[in-house]
Amino acid sequence: VYSYQTFRESQAGYRPREPGGRMGRCPWKWAVSGKKICMRGHISNVHGVAPCPAERVFLSVSTDCTARLYDMNDHVMIDSVHVLKPARSATWWCKRDIVEGVSAEVLGSKTPGSAFAVGHEDGSFSIWLTAKSAAMAAAQDDDEQVDSNPFFNPEDAFGVISLCCLNPLPRKSAPMVPGIVRVPSEQALQVKYSPNGKYFAVALGDNCIDVYKHALVAFEERSLKEEHIEKAKQKALGFSDEEIEMQPFFPYRRIGCCNDHSSAVKHFDFDNFSAFIRSVSESNELLFCYVPSGRQNQSLTEMATKTWSTEHCILSWTVKSIWGLGVGGGSNSINSVDRSFYKVPPWASAFGGNEPAPCPCPPGYISKGSFEPVDVFQTNNFPGEGMSSSWGHHVCVTGDDCGKVKLFRWPAFGFKQAYRAYVGHGAHVSEVRFSHDNDFVISAGGNDMAIFQWRHRVPNKIYVKNLPNKKDEFGKFTISDFDLREHLIGTFSSVLKAARWKAEPFNRLRADRRSAGRSIVPSFDTQLRDALMRETHVSQADLKRLEFDIRLQRASREEFSEDDEILPDRDIVSCAIFPSGAQEAFKYFPSVQNGCRMTERWASITFRTQEECDDAISLFGGRNVIQHPELYRGDFLALYPLYRRVSEQDTDFDRAPKSFVDQHMPPAIEVRTNLVDPVHATKVSTFWVPIGDEHYEEKNCNRGNPHFMFVSDHDALFVDLSWIYSEAMQKVKEEMQEKARQAGITEDGYQYPYTFEEVLQFSQESDAEWNRVEEWSNSDERYGRTYPGDECLPSYALWRQAWHQKARSGKSGSLAGSKLLR
Fold it and tell me: What pLDDT sits at residue 92?
């Protein structure tokens, strides 16, 4: 990145202009001496990307003999390593368990460090071990000692990355002809670990899939004779003395081989139980084999009932319709495919054919067809789908030779499959992968040496932070991922419910209550109106939304009679749990007096409809409490912890009425259902109690205060400045319109801005507001994004209010302040 100026010719960095006002050519000729590195990348073809299975970190490999690691949140390279040989593919070691979730600590929970494998162009592969885990590397910017350490290197997040072992191709390759340069046919086209973490497989260009047993055994743990025998084998296979001495571990031991393909094997998948492999070759063969022997399985009836941990094979029944008519090995053939880990709400077929309706629907958009999503695949979609699917479906992403990245519904089969195509790459897309939380897609551009990070926006999705994080002596959570998923689904689907009509304006609510013969509390409306008038740091639109949320919370705490209608549970499409990575961890929420330190464990929940998602945010949301602490202290806003379901006999304390909310002791909640007890002929109720300190680490507890959930519709791992800016500009527009109305320039109903002067003034204020947002993102003052204290969470609205007070008193001297005062 070069820096220039066009004002003073005598100063460094002057860049003249050509006739017509255009900038001159040859930027290096007039550039300022010294360069600022904006982004480091590969200098040769990029063929493989591998997102980390537990963090927002991904790995890319190239034929320039390097592996580079990037942070998805900060969009920067955080580490790199020279992998000795041109690389073709890569993967991370992980262990997936239905109960405990994903584990990426290869040496155990007591020893930090992550392991990844790299497949090379000559058919060999190497195993690398990092000194720090992916969670520690992703959180390096959150360390308070970073700013004070002059030797901090942001591109050394993983510490020392050391070579564990280097496995050569177990067969003799074709001899090289002198004077002829050829690409080796024994390339490691894909490498992958099994879901249980016990096996490692390599898809090679010599028509084979080699299966190895994963075991990192150091030379120190075996006899000296075994070490010499192993090094002699590597020497006979063509390894240099330097490569042999760099390896402190025994190489992987091959225990199986699948050699039934007639051409190079490009893609393969393990099943969920690590017992079978399905693979696709360049000759469009789809074969199945046993693990670990590699013996072929020809029983298609048996293989049709298996479910697969990944969807990387470009030929299968589930991805039949990703291929267009006449496509197959041609100029626009598909190179890579990947399936999302979790389900998303279905697309609405507004137009039919291959043009689905946008979801969520943008403002002012009028659908030409039915906008209500209809999921017709409520039963088994195909023999290999397994159990009946719930509401929603997966999606899959593809990369082809035309440089396009396409998004399909999964399973993609039928006569014509709808998709969305995205362009950007200048060459064929060699590989595409979803991140572990489905929020991003990483694509490698092959010959254009580019890596793209795409944001995968899922509608009706919320993020839940501050979940139980206590571990036992074996390093496992006391509340496993399986149990925590049950608690989250029950809490957000049935614990708190309220009809939206009860949160309408007060006049309508009063009329409904009078018609029902109930008494009202006239003081609540007056108190709420007075409290909202004091919240001047947000826009009127936010105040209306806030009033609706307060009334909806109040309606959910009302006592019900037996004649009241029982509201249906919310439909949850998917619930994903992640062990670490949440922002603002170890900060108090909502305050030191009423809350506890938040944990790093978080989850994402996707609902069926946008209305259900909005209700969950209104009833459980934490953003209102952060932006309006006075309303929380005045008992207008309420927070809730995570609840677990118990039987009526297990409820160890009295259930308080739902209208009573104690900030220090959340009550147990009784939820009525439509089920009828056949013995007593009464409706069955379920009982829910809050989860307390017994499932949280001691460092996250605070004098017995409850652990409130922080629920938001914004990303739990990083702050989107564009969203903060758009919300702040609504407040700026209202302020400028109010000033113009008071000055008599405009009238009620006037659409501001209208004249050229107003547009120019609004543009200047927009620039000033964006400068303030950027200043907030780097501010270490109270409510700032980088505030080092733990007694409050970042809030741009409160920081902006304090900034205005400083600007009026003349204490602010920033660039944004000078623009505002002008």
Answer: 93
Rounded CA-CA distance 539/728 in Å is 8
In angstroms, the CA 418 to CA 673 distance is: 39
The alpha carbons of the chain give a radius of gyration, in whole angstroms, of 30
First to last CA, the chain: 32
Q: Reduce the secondary structure of 164-226 to three states and give it as a string.
A: EEEECCCCCCCCCCCCCCCCCCCCEEEEEECCCCCEEEEEECCCCEEEEECCCCEHHHCCHHH
Instruction: Confirm if 443 and 70 have CB atoms less than 8 A apart.
Output: no
Partners of 218 in the β-ladder: 249
DSSP E strand boundaries for 63-123:
66-71, 76-82, 87-92, 95-97, 101-103, 115-120
- Amino acid 730 reads Q
**Residue 106: which residues within 8 A CB-CB, separation 6 or more?**
93, 113, 114, 115, 129, 216
What are 262-298's pLDDT values in tens digits? 999 999 999 988 999 999 999 889 999 999 999 999 8
**Which residue ranges in the chain fall short of pLDDT 50?**
1-2, 20-35, 330-331, 348-363, 365-390, 506-522, 651, 653-661, 749, 812-822
Q: How many residues does the chain have?
A: 822
Cα three-residue angle 684-685-688, rounded to 5 degrees: 155
C-alpha 351: how far from chain center: 30
Q: Report the candidate in 621, 705, 629 with the shortest Cα–Cα distance to residue 663.
A: 705
Q: What pLDDT is attached to residue 350?
A: 35
Gap between the Cα atoms of 280 and 261, Å rounded: 9
What is the DSSP secondary structure assignment for residue 682, as one 8-state letter? S
Query: Residue 331, class by beta-carbon neighbours within 10 Å (0-12 exposed, 13-18 middle, 19+ buried)?
Result: exposed
**Three-class SS of residue 161?**
strand
- Max CA pair span of the chain: 98
pLDDT digits (tens, 9 = 90+) for 778-787: 888 888 888 8
Residue 191 forms beta bridges with which residues? 202
SS3 652: coil
Alpha carbon of 817 to those of 449, 594, 774: distances in Å?
42, 35, 13
Cα separation of 395 and 440, whole Å? 13
Return the number of other C-beta atoms located less than 10 Å from residue 312's C-beta: 26
